[in-house]
């Protein structure tokens, strides 16, 4: 078995081991806007649910050359954002928004995705996403040093939008109908494969 000391590896090497080993990862497609109302959209695979009461989600946004990305700056300024679950129907468009653009550019203009108003936050959402969570900033936690580090953004979910076709039986979601896409390493992604059930043991 290969062994490595993390401190002896470069940032890229650590990233490859983390993203290659921690798979599959759900993809948060996040919309924010700046003070002028310019919309920003970007995907993040360092993402998960972290609390149920109140409901909270987490995304980790890395810094680029020591600078915070547009998503982080917008959330800090407005304290609101929308998280969409990436599925098979929108993955190509979501991937398009990952390209680097000037801060004044709305990435959604390069896709066929449609914007819809939110109910409880000012940031709009994406119509085609089967699930979207309207969020308010709960906490931002800087990690690592100022150049190579990341920001953990924890948002409280204040409003859910769930497509009728995937919703059933009092707040359950049909995974087969959702068709969520997961991130692997590099440019590789995964669809949901064979599913199985293991019952949790009794105490």
UniProtKB/TrEMBL annotation:
The keyword Electron transport does not apply. Its cofactor is FMN. Coiled coil: none annotated. Keywords: Flavoprotein, FMN. SUPFAM superfamilies: FMN-binding split barrel (SSF50475). Residues 20-169 form the Flavin reductase like domain. This is Flavin reductase like domain-containing protein. It comes from Staphylococcus argensis. The lineage of its organism: Bacteria, Bacillati, Bacillota, Bacilli, Bacillales.
């Amino acid at each position: 078995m290969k062994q490595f000391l993390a401190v002896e590896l470069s940032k890229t090497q650590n990233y490859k081991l983390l993203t290659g080993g921690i798979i599959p990862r759900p993809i948060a497609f996040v919309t924010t806007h700046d003070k002028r109302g310019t919309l920003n959209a970007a995907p993040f695979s360092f993402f998960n649910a972290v609390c149920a009461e109140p409901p909270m989600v987490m995304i980790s946004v890395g810094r680029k050359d020591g600078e915070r990305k547009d998503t982080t700056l917008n959330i800090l300024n407005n304290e609101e954002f929308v998280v969409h679950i990436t599925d098979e129907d929108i993955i190509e468009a979501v991937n398009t928004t990952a390209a680097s653009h000037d801060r004044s550019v709305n990435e959604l203009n390069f896709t066929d995705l449609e914007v819809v108003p939110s109910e409880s936050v000012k940031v709009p959402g994406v119509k085609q996403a089967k699930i979207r969570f309207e969020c308010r900033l709960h906490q931002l936690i800087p990690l690592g040093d100022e150049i190579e580090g990341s920001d953990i953004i924890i948002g409280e979910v204040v409003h859910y939008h769930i497509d009728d076709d995937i919703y059933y039986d009092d707040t359950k979601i049909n995974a087969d109908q959702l068709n969520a896409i997961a991130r692997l390493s590099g440019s590789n992604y995964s669809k949901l494969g064979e599913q199985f059930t293991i019952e949790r043991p009794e105490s």
